[in-house]
Amino acid sequence: MSSSRPALLRVLDGETLATPPVWFMRQAGRYLPEYRALRATAADFVGFCLDPEKAAEATLQPMRRFPFSAAIVFADILLIPQALGQKVAFEAGEGPVLGELPPVEAMAALAEEAGRALSPVGETLSRVRAAMDSQRTLIGFAGAPWTVATYMLDGANRTIGKGERALARDFVYRDAAHVEAVLDVLVEATAHYLKMQAEAGAQVLKIFESWAEGLSDELFDRLVLAPHQKLVARVRELGVTVPLIGFPRGSAALAERYAAGCDVQAVALDTACPLEVGRRVQAIKPIQGALDPLLLRAGGAALDRRVDVLLDAWGQGPYVFNLGHGILPDTPIAHVEQVLKRIGAD
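RESULT FIELD:
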């Protein structure tokens, strides 16, 4: 394989590199003083995400500071509900607050236009791609259907508290047909959204399933695996050829089932994934993850040891070094530098 190809893309092709490519989830965020200053210039978070100039700057800030192999576009998984006609707002100290769920038929009528409705994200990607050198990869993303559905179904009721999103499976027990109809709409809308991102310059697309935890085998297949399969197939039908990374966070041992059953090019692993499970997933396709962001925040010798353990366990195959979840806002910048130095990133 050509060494002129960016490191992340080489790994997603199945290549093992002596030094793995590295990027971190939420690498553009509140732990950076320059991000906090930029964020203060916009009162509304959704508006900030949909401002291409500001979102591109946020995306590029960590790329200027650190030798990350890839940038991930600054956006949010809950832009899709807004494109489907549901009110979305972010309240300080509360997180996302959604309005009433529109009728499925009304959302279905808007699904094919999701990419156009969220075109500012495409402009952000184009700006970032133009500003980055060719050896660094640009990643686009979307929330997975089930994760986005958990927020949408709860809507204005707010019956699911912060940190209890996994309880959304109660919706499935009460009205499975309605949930599946919403998931089908989200598959279509998300496919068009991802297509728009690829056309705007994204070289990799990531599917974030933040709420794959707490599911039985049957529900995992119905709510995670089947919608991901449909989404990947629809994205390919729309002509998208760039690699896809799936992230079934909280899936534990079911990550292996996901890797075997979903046609993504790589699987991202969370902090709780056992090393041996990671090895088995890696025998199927490339993996990404899974440093604990709490350990990144703590730093010290324990951080160095865990970096070494992950590199020893997974570095002998196609591997992208990353966190098992996003960087915490109070993470010292020096600890990010510590990890990058330990890996040998330059």
